[in-house]
Write a structure and sequence with these properties.
With 121 residues, the protein is mostly beta strands. The protein is 0% helix and 61% strand.
């Protein structure tokens, strides 16, 4: 099995910054990509940013230039630096993992438990 543990959410004022981290652990053979999604009540879960094992990144238009995703392949961790936060960034942020276990099970999407980011004055 693979487990994802997220950390770093919290309350921040508009214009502030936060850093989210996610660590994948367990019987990981290969990680294809990791990323962050976010969801607000009553809405679907949307991509925020993703990064492949080769370092290619993809960002939602709404966060380009403000958020930065990074990854440590050796540690199977992914981080998201959130700068210039806006109230509309308020959401539960979920870590996402795609890869293969040592037992040959492939996951396209495995989710963390989520961490709440609240941007408010």
């Amino acid at each position: 099995q693979v487990q994802l543990v997220e950390s770093g959410g919290g309350l921040v004022q508009p214009g502030g910054s936060l850093r989210l981290s996610c660590a994948a652990s367990g019987n990981i053979f290969m990680t294809y990509a990791m990323g962050w999604y976010r969801q607000t009540p009553g809405k679907r879960r949307d991509l925020v940013a993703a990064i492949t094992s080769g370092g290619s990144t993809n960002y939602a238009d709404s966060v380009k230039g403000r958020f930065t995703i990074s990854r440590d392949n050796a540690k199977n961790t992914v981080s998201l630096q959130l700068n210039s936060l806006k109230p509309e960034d308020t959401a539960v942020y979920y870590c996402n993992w795609g890869g293969e276990t040592t037992t040959g099970i492939r996951y396209r999407e495995l989710w963390g438990q989520g961490t709440l980011v609240t941007v408010s004055s």
